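Action item from last meeting closed. Structure (154 res):
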C-alpha cells in the first residue's frame, strides 16, 4: 500500500443513504463494484445544487425505482475505505415508500433491488458494501431518529 500524499487536501466524499423499512424488511440493492457484487442501501453521492433530502430521494429512485419520502435523519456516519484512501461521510435517512415505477430502468451497476429482514441481511452470502449497511439497520431497529431539520441548508 502506498503512503497518502500529505500535501494534498483531504476531502471526504459525502453520500446519502435511504433506509427504507416495510414491515420487517429493509430495501437494499445488489450492485456491481470494483470489488465485485455487494449489498448496500440505496445510496450515492450528494450532487452540487441539491439538498441532502433531494439527493436521497433521487438515489432511491435511480437505484430501486421506488419513490421515497424522508421522515427522519437516522444519523451521520463515517467510514474509511483504506484500499483507495477515501473517507465517506454518510447521511442516512429513514424513508417511506410513496410510489413504485415498475417501468423504470435501474442505474448502471445495480443488479436488483430486494427486501431483506435483518437476519437475512446479516446472513446473506453477498458481502456488504461497508460496515455501515448493517449498522444503519441496527440503529433503525434501536429507534434512533433525528428531525429532518437537524441538517440545515443555507
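Sequence:
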Amino acid at each position: 500500500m502506498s503512503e497518502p500524499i500529505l500535501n494534498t487536501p483531504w476531502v471526504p466524499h459525502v453520500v446519502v443513504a435511504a433506509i427504507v423499512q416495510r414491515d420487517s424488511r429493509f430495501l437494499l440493492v445488489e450492485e456491481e463494484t470494483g470489488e465485485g457484487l455487494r449489498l448496500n442501501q440505496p445510496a450515492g453521492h450528494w450532487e452540487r445544487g441539491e439538498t441532502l433530502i433531494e439527493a436521497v430521494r433521487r438515489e432511491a429512485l435511480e437505484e430501486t425505482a421506488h419513490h421515497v419520502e424522508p421522515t427522519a435523519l437516522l444519523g451521520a456516519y463515517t467510514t474509511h475505505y483504506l484500499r483507495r484512501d477515501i473517507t465517506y461521510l454518510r447521511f442516512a435517512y429513514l424513508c417511506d415508500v410513496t410510489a413504485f415505477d415498475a417501468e423504470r430502468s435501474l442505474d448502471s451497476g445495480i443488479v436488483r433491488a430486494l427486501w431483506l429482514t435483518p437476519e437475512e441481511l446479516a446472513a446473506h452470502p453477498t458481502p456488504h458494501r461497508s460496515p455501515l449497511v448493517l449498522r444503519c439497520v441496527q440503529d433503525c431497529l434501536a429507534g434512533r431518529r433525528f428531525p429532518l431539520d437537524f441538517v440545515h441548508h443555507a
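Note appended to the action item: The radius of gyration is 15 Å.
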